[in-house]
Structures are given as C-alpha cells and as structure tokens.
Specification:
The chain is built from 13 helices and 15 strands. With 365 residues, the chain is an alpha/beta fold. The strands form three sheets. The protein has a nine-stranded mixed β-sheet, with helices on both faces. The protein has a three-stranded antiparallel β-sheet with strand order 10-11-12, with no helix packed on it. A three-stranded antiparallel β-sheet has the order 13-15-14.
C-alpha cells in the first residue's frame, strides 16, 4: 500500500507567513486539474493506495465539479483501499453545506491557526474565529467525524494566557486531531521582512518552550495522544497519511512542487504552476530525482522516525548504522534525553526540546 499526495498550490489570500498570492482564475484551476489527471497516466507506478491527501495550498478553492473530476480519475487510475483515509485541506470560510456531496472525503484538515481575530488579521487570514466554529458544525452535519485543526503559537506579543485561551477554544470544539506549530520567520516572506525592519519582535525562547509545554499538558490531560512532535490525536484518529511519511511508507506526489518517495528514490516536481502544466501537456513528467544511498536512508530514518512517539525501530537499522547510532546516542541516553525501550529509541519530552541537536549528532555526515 502507498499514499497519494496531491498538491493544490492555490491560496485564497496573501499569507503573511508564506508570501504567496493567488490571482488564479477558474480556467487555470481547470487546466491544473487536467494536468493532475494526465500526470496520473504518465507516472508508471500504479500501486494500491491506502491514503489520499489533498493539501499543501487550498483544495477548497476548487469547484465541486473540479474536485469530482479529480477524485473520479484517482479512483479510475489507482486501486483504492475501500477503507482509505481521504483527507482534504480546507479554509474554514470555504466550508459550506453540500461541499463533499458524492466525494469520498472522510477527513477534513482545517487551518484555524488562532481563535483571536486580531492575530488572524495579522497573518492575513480571511476567516474569523466564529467561522471556525460554524465550519465544525457544518462538517459534522455532513457526516464527517474526523477533523483536524491547525493551531499556531508564538505570535508577536502573544502571552501564555493568550495561548491558553486558544487551546481552551480548541478543546471546546473537540476535533479528533490537532496539529500545533510555532510561528516561523522564514527568509523571503513578508513576515521575515517585518522582523528585519523591526516592525515585529519574536517571542523569547523561554516563553516559546512554556507554550509548547502547556500545549502538551493540556491536550494529553484532555485525552489526546501526543504521537508526533507537533501532532495530537484522540484514540484511533492519528493521521494515517502523515504517519506514512514518518514510518517509511512509499507515496506518490501529484502537482506542482509535489514530492514522491519509492524506498530507493526521492523525486520532486517543478514548483512553477505554468511550467508544470505546460510540461504535462507535452507528455513530460517535470521532476528531478535523487537515488538514495544507504547513509541517506539512515539519515532520513533518524529525522522522521525520531519525530514520533515510537521512535526508531532498531530492528530496521543495519548493523553498521546501528553501532554508530547507539554510540552517538549514549550521551543523550545518559542524560535522559533519549530513551531505549522495547528495542526502540525515542526522544524523551525534554529531548524533544533539543531535537535538532540530537538528530544532527545521530546522522552520518
């Protein structure tokens, strides 16, 4: 079984943290869907599919007709598991009655980000906190009871009390899954330029760590499983698709910027939408490919499996890499930052806070 990931790089508004602005029209949406369908035909691999994920961008900007055509083609080209997890990312304000009618979507991922309207305006989100609440009601009314919401913490001038209010609001909605991330100031984005100009200021590291600790404490106390650094799920509601990335399961990526993985290779499509469409129309798959050697596969294992609650299954590590791994892990094991149990190596809660350092020391240079 493999996963199918479909990148829909259409944003509904200018995002202060990604900087992308969409001026797309329906005709471009149609061309893009046509290209996605054609790409399915061009890709030689036709594995059985256990998860489908429409996201990265805003699939909810596509019309119902376009989505129906895309899903129809997916089910025509691939052998889809009858119990497949089918996730669609949506903006809260795009959710409306009947939007999933006759579509196989059984999981919705929604970017709430925050329940403070002022902070939503700061990151140029169109929706309001109230619209997130309304969207949850509509989704449940449509018979979908597997919803994930994204939260963000670490806004300029945000306090721990502000963050606790966001968590409280999320818990009142009781989504089956919550992903939470610290606000990032990425080079080249409008937010980064504001930081350089002194218009905003990052919160200090101590407060950021306190916010992360509060997140873990509150969500686990409410019955959520902290199964990956940034992800929490009620029992039985882990993201099966995202888990495939962390557990070395192959996946096919469709669309501009989409990545694919085959256990021995990694490939990625061009990022430019028009270039992607033109190439596909010419019958050419517009990707670059990397053949993965044993050291690269080992490094990938460190940086993916170690993000999870279960950590690295040592039985999957070659003898040569295992000696290196355990030798380099020893200082962190001695300090309680790594834990070795049931033939698995995982980070402790304190170890997660310095995960980049730990992972770097466990990787083959």
């Amino acid at each position: 079984m493999a996963g199918l990931y479909i990148h829909i790089p259409f944003c509904a508004s200018r995002c202060i943290y990604c900087g992308f602005y969409s001026t797309t029209r329906a005709s471009l949406h149609d061309q893009y869907v046509d290209a996605l369908c054609h790409e399915m035909e061009l890709i030689p691999e036709k594995p059985s599919i256990s998860t489908i994920y429409l996201g990265g961008g805003t699939p909810s900007q596509l019309s119902h007709e376009q989505l129906a055509r895309l899903f129809s083609y997916i089910y025509k080209v691939y052998d889809i598991d009858p119990d497949a997890e089918v996730t669609m990312e949506c903006n809260p304000d795009d959710i409306h009655e009947g939007m999933f009618l006759h579509l196989p979507v059984n999981r919705v991922s929604m970017g709430a980000q925050t329940f403070d309207d002022g902070r939503l305006r700061f990151i140029h989100r169109r929706h309001t906190a109230q619209q997130v609440d309304q969207a949850m009601e509509i989704i449940h009314g449509l018979g979908i009871h597997n919803v994930s919401i994204d939260l963000m913490f670490g806004f300029p001038e945000e306090t721990l009390a502000n963050w606790q209010q966001d968590i409280d609001h999320a818990l009142r909605l009781r989504p089956e899954h919550i992903s939470a991330y610290g606000l990032m100031y990425e080079d080249g984005t409008p937010l980064y330029r504001m930081l350089e100009q002194g218009l905003v200021k990052e919160i200090d590291e101590e407060l950021s760590l306190a916010m992360y600790d509060t997140l873990i404490d509150r969500l686990t106390a409410a019955g959520y499983e902290h199964y990956e650094f940034s992800n929490f799920a009620l029992p039985g509601f882990r993201s099966r698709h995202n888990s495939s990335y962390w557990h070395n399961i192959p996946y096919i990526g469709l669309g501009a910027s989409a990545h694919s993985y085959t256990l021995s290779t990694r490939r990625w499509n061009v990022s430019d939408i028009q270039q992607y469409i033109h190439s596909i129309e010419q019958g050419v798959l517009p990707y670059e490919e990397e053949v993965l050697d044993k050291d690269t596969l080992y490094n990938d294992l460190v940086t993916t499996a170690l993000r999870t609650r279960e950590g690295i299954d040592l039985s999957t590590v070659s003898p040569a890499h295992l000696d290196f791994l355990l030798s380099n892990a020893k200082p962190y094991l001695d300090r309680g930052l790594l834990v070795l149990e049931d033939h698995r190596l995982h980070l402790s809660r304190e170890g997660i806070k310095i995960s980049n350092t730990v992972m770097s020391d466990l990787m083959m240079v």
